[in-house]
Design a protein that fits this description.
By secondary structure, the protein is an alpha+beta fold. It has one domain: rbstp2171 (2-Layer Sandwich). 47% of the residues lie in helices and 21% in strands. InterPro entries: Phage_tail_E/E.
Length: 109
C-alpha cells in the first residue's frame, strides 16, 4: 500500500486502533440512519493542513477537516456542520485521545 493510500485507509483497516461513538442525534442519509461512527487513529497524512494543538483543543474547523478522513462511514463536512455539538465533542475526544498516545493514558491511572 503506498503512503497516500495509508493516509486515507478505511476506519476499520486491520491493525489500526479504532473507537466507536454512538451518536446522541443520529444522522439521516437518505433512507439510512447512521447511529454509530467508527473513528480510527489518524496517521500523519490524515492530519495535513491542521495544527495538532488545534485538534487537541477540539477546534471545530480542524475537526471538520480531519474527521471525514478517519471515520466510517465517512462523515461529510456538511454533516459535521449540522451535527449535534455533543456528538462532535464525543468524536473530538476520541481524536484527542489518539493523539495523546499510550503514555497519557498510563498517567491517568
Amino acid at each position: 500500500m503506498d503512503e497516500q493510500a495509508k493516509d486515507t485507509a478505511p476506519a476499520t483497516a486491520p491493525g489500526i486502533p479504532t473507537e466507536t461513538v454512538t451518536l446522541d442525534t443520529p444522522i439521516q442519509r437518505g433512507s439510512k440512519t447512521v447511529t454509530e461512527i467508527t473513528v480510527r487513529k489518524p496517521l500523519s497524512g490524515a492530519l495535513r493542513g491542521v495544527a495538532l494543538v488545534d485538534l487537541l483543543n477540539m477546534d471545530t474547523h480542524s475537526l471538520h477537516k480531519v474527521l471525514p478522513r478517519i471515520t466510517e462511514p465517512a462523515l461529510t463536512e456538511a454533516e459535521l456542520r449540522k451535527m449535534d455539538p455533543a456528538d462532535l465533542v464525543q468524536l473530538g475526544s476520541k481524536v484527542s485521545r489518539f493523539l495523546l498516545g499510550k503514555r497519557a493514558e498510563d498517567s491517568d491511572t
